[in-house]
Amino acid sequence: MTDAWTIYQSPLGPLTLIGGPGRLSALYFPGRSGPLAEERRDPEALAVACDQLEEYFDGTRTRFELALHLGGTAFQRRVWAELIAIPFGATVSYGALADAIGRPDRVRAVGATVGRTPVPIVVPCHRVIGANGELTGYGGGLQRKQALLDLEAAVAGGDPPPAVWRGRQLAML
Q1: Are 119 and 149 contained in the same domain?
Q2: 78 and 154 together in one domain
Q3: For tag attachment on the chain, is the N or C end more exposed, with fewer CB atoms within 10 Å?
Q4: pTM attached to this predicted model
């Protein structure tokens, strides 16, 4: 079966989700998905993923419960599994992530794999930062990465999401 797609209107802009009933295989930030066949647009096929994203942005979901079809090499799947294990509201460095998978000699490869995460947000690649604590690259842009970290910090600290999240007022380009 060919994957279906839909658009989820998030506070970070329209996100393109690709997958099918019970699974998610890709999530793209605005302008990143390329052309999609209109006949494969199927919001119902991705309703569970959209619902869980809505809960995440509302601050009521801290862990996604979706079947993921990520593809990739064994190394990439190991890195992505470790990303999923990073606690909500926490951050780790690329070096710490490489250590966690038992490959401290592969920090650059880990960084490249983080950058290729097919389902950002759900696989929280935004939680990986530079060794000096600064934000480094993010496929959705550093502004979105910071916004996601701010959302998680507020919710993890027991606060509601910032008002701009609840009102869908973020202006991310």
Answers
A1: yes
A2: yes
A3: N
A4: 0.91
